[in-house]
Amino acid sequence: MEIKVLGPGCKKCNTLAEATNKAIGELAIEANVEKIDDMVKILSYGVMSTPALVINEKVVFSGKVPSVSEIKEFIQNA
Fold this sequence. Notes:
42% helix; alpha+beta; 3 helices; single chain
């Protein structure tokens, strides 16, 4: 599973990355998490509000930091 955290490196983006790693750990799954801070790449996903979460190249959430339980749902539904 490929997961990307999109954002310019702000506190919310780092919080989303940490929460995503926690969700992966709780689910005990294999996943690669990549942080993307290049605005051109972020815009290529159609994201206008960061932070955003991309799972298997599909934007599943943007604009705020979801809870760990919400992130787990996004992962399980991917």
